[in-house]
Amino acid sequence: MIGEAVGLVETVTKDFGPIDVLINNAGITIDKTLRNMSPDQWEKVIGVDLSSVFDCSRAVIGQMLERGYGRIINISSVVGQKGNFGQTNYAAAKAGIIGFTKALALETAKKGITVNAIAPGVVKTAMTDKIPKDVMDKIVESIPIGRLAEPSDIARAIVFLADEKSSYITGQVMGINGGFYM
Fold it and tell me: Please, are residues 110 and 137 in contact by the beta-carbon 8 Å criterion?
């Protein structure tokens, strides 16, 4: 996948100029208890949710370091902070993103690059639309604010972290979960 990411970055840079902001926002779930999870199911979720963060960050980091500027924003999950039944693969990947974020922030802090993560709670997306209504009702009941996050709730945080005026914020995990994880 690193080759694909490098090719994509080269194309974007050629067509639009240097990349100032990278948002790593890939995510899939394959929910099974560990006992019933196949190695392929583990690898697929880790590959999409975590390895893609490495691939894309690695593909842009050189040009950001050369220019002395960049913003990398990684989308983790509340599940990476607290775990969730039947999601060992997803929880591991999203927790890995948090560790990756903090380590890369340390590597790049003095070079004009900030690296932060957002850990959303349950967001209204095509992925969550597949959750049965009775299960979704229980999830919403457990969120103190009483609703799912809208994509715009997450987008506002991304815009904030991407702003040049947010240059003193790095290595942080911003929880946007309606009080689901306090």
Answer: no
Place of tokens 């904030």: 160
User: What is the model's pTM?
Assistant: 0.95
**pLDDT, tens digit, for every residue of 142-180?**
999 999 999 999 999 999 999 999 999 999 999 999 999
In which order are the strands placed within the sheet that holds 113-120?
A: 21-24, 70-75, 113-120, 173-176
Q: Name the active-site residue from 69, 90, 168, 181.
A: 90
**Residue 90 appears among annotated catalytic residues:** yes
**If pLDDT is split at 50, 70 and 90, which confidence band does 2 have?**
confident
Mean per-residue pLDDT, 41-63? 98
Domains of the chain, with CATH numbers? 2-176 (3.40.50.720)
